[in-house]
């Protein structure tokens, strides 16, 4: 995701603050800008508008409002830049935990909108890449565990070596045009069904 050509949603109950953000975006060349001034049903409105990036200005929010916005941030899975007039260390940490891409305290100026938007997109991309890499690593680890279990089953049932068990899995996968992990899963499932006390 790059900042150019993004559809940007501004959420701000204050029309003057929202106009400052809008002006900053339009000066930076963003013409796909939508403003929402009512927080009621905001999750539904976001789903309807389907923006690429969300900028939220909360002014001086109370604790409940902040928590609602943090929950919203976790749910929408988009870059979010959030402006507040003041904050404390706890709120900043909760914002980070909620995945807010840019949490800006007392920094609403028209000329700052674009760099903050760019930073939010950049951080979101980096965070998303880390999440994907973590998911890939977890998946790879689970696949390795599954293959190890399948090899152990073959070694016990056929009395073969670990190398021979793996070679059999690999050959079967090639013959069936499937992945080794799929063959391993089938074998582990079948073994668990044949084992009266076992489970997949």
Written overview of the protein:
- With 200 residues, the chain is an alpha/beta fold.
- The protein has helices at residues 15-27, 42-49, 63-76, 89-97, 110-158, 162-175, 180-194, and strands at 8-11, 33-36, 53-57, 80-84, 102-105.
- β4 (80-84), α4 (89-97) and β5 (102-105) form a beta-alpha-beta unit.
- α5 packs across α6 and α6 (162-175) packs across α7 (180-194).
- It is elongated and about 75 Å long.
- The mean pLDDT is 89.
Global structural class: alpha/beta
Radius of gyration: 25 Å
Low-confidence blocks of residues? none
Oligomer: single chain
Q: Could you spell the SSE succession in H and E letters?
A: EHEHEHEHEHHH
Number of strands: 5
In short:
The protein has 200 residues and is of the alpha/beta class.
What is the fold's blueprint, element by element?
Blueprint: E1 8-11, H1 15-27, E2 33-36, H2 42-49, E3 53-57, H3 63-76, E4 80-84, H4 89-97, E5 102-105, H5 110-158, H6 162-175, H7 180-194
Parallel strand pairs: 1-2, 1-3, 3-4, 4-5
Please tag this protein with its features.
200 residues, 5 strands, 61% helix
């Amino acid at each position: 995701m790059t900042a150019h050509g993004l559809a940007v949603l501004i959420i701000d109950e204050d029309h003057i603050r929202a106009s400052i953000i809008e002006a900053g975006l339009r000066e930076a060349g963003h013409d796909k800008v939508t403003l929402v001034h009512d927080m009621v049903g905001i999750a539904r409105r976001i789903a309807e508008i389907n923006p690429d990036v969300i900028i939220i200005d909360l002014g001086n929010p109370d604790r409940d409002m902040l928590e609602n916005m943090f929950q919203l941030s976790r749910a929408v899975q988009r870059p979010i830049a959030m402006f507040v007039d003041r904050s404390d260390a706890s709120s900043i940490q909760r914002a980070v935990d909620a995945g807010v891409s840019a949490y800006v305290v007392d920094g609403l100026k028209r000329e700052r909108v674009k760099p903050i938007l760019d930073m939010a997109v950049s951080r979101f991309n980096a965070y998303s890449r880390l999440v994907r890499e973590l998911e890939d690593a977890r998946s790879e680890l689970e696949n390795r565990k599954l293959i190890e279990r399948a090899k152990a089953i073959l070694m016990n049932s056929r009395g073969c070596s670990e190398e021979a068990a793996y070679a059999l899995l690999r050959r079967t996968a090639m013959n069936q045009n499937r992945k080794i992990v799929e063959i391993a899963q089938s074998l582990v499932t079948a073994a668990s069904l044949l084992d009266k006390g076992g489970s997949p």
